[in-house]
Specification:
Structural class: alpha/beta
Strand content: 15-25%
Mean pLDDT: 97
Number of strands: 12
Bound molecules: S-adenosylmethionine
Number of helices: 6
CATH class of the largest domain: Alpha Beta
Oligomer: single chain
Radius of gyration: 22 Å
Helix content: 25-40%
Largest sheet: 5 strands, parallel
CATH architecture of the largest domain: 3-Layer(aba) Sandwich
Low-confidence stretches: none
């Protein structure tokens, strides 16, 4: 899978993308991550990418013509719509969640457009397929949201993690109802006793059928307690 990120700050990505699972996924050729500097499409000698808002106000707005040129460059015109998505990171967008990560992970190319400064010209929204928010708060730019989405998507690609590794995680564990997902059950490792807190006996029993049953019950219990909205 190819993930193309359009940003004014490509260097911000070097740390997160050169460690751990994302690094290995790229080395194994399972994910190709391309960073493109929007500044390269800026206007004139000074590569201008933004301007003052019409109507006045604080901050600078990223220009639609510049972003359009950048998108034209990275869009793969040979891919059908179902295989490629252009996503704008945007506080106004649909809230990112595991089901969206799963659907992105089936694409051939995901293009993530990071805005910065005060935001983007409204007309940019007509150039993208989807707008995604990472939550009800404002961060400085789309770069950290793009890193989060890339991470969540890449770890779902076949071969990146061990088989079945994502199946027993929060938001992937299935509940009783259709499309219901649960939080993960409690996990423990050594030592068996720590400051008077014991690992539950069932996990030491070696009875995997009973352990699976206990884990499913605990997942449901924790979801009821912490995320009852997931059960509705
Ligand atoms: C400082 S923010 C602009 C916020 C904008 N003026 C507003 O009030 O909605 C700059 C850019 O960061 C990104 N961004 C900020 N918060 C985000 C969020 N919660 N989810 C996704 N992207 C976000 C977007 O690309 C946004 O255009």
């Amino acid at each position: 899978m190819k993930i193309t990120i359009l940003t004014l700050f490509p260097q911000m990505f070097s740390g997160p993308f050169s460690e751990s699972i994302i690094k290995r996924a790229q080395e194994k050729g399972l994910a190709e991550i391309n960073l493109l500097n929007i500044r390269d499409f800026g206007i004139g000698q000074h590569h201008v990418v933004d301007d003052k808002p019409y109507g006045g106000g604080i901050g600078m707005i990223m220009k639609v013509d510049v972003i359009d040129s950048a998108l034209q460059k990275v869009k793969d015109t040979t891919l059908p719509k179902t295989q490629q998505k252009i996503v704008l990171l945007d506080p106004r967008g649909k809230q990112f969640q595991q089901s969206i990560a799963r659907s992105f992970s089936t694409l051939n190319q995901l293009i993530l457009l990071c805005a910065h400064y005060e935001g983007i010209d409204e007309r940019v929204r007509n150039l993208v397929d989807e707008t995604i928010s990472i939550g009800d708060f404002v961060v400085t730019g789309g770069e950290i949201p793009a890193m989060l989405i890339t991470d969540a998507v890449v770890r779902l690609l076949t071969g990146v993690l061990k088989d079945g590794a994502t199946q027993h995680e929060s938001f992937n564990i299935k509940g009783d109802q259709d499309n219901q997902v649960l939080l993960e059950y409690p996990q423990y490792t050594t030592p068996q006793q720590y400051h008077g807190q014991k690992v539950p006996d069932i996990l030491l029993s070696g009875n995997h059928k009973e352990i699976d049953k206990w884990r499913q019950e605990k997942s449901l219990e924790l979801t009821k307690l912490h995320r009852p909205d997931l059960l509705q």
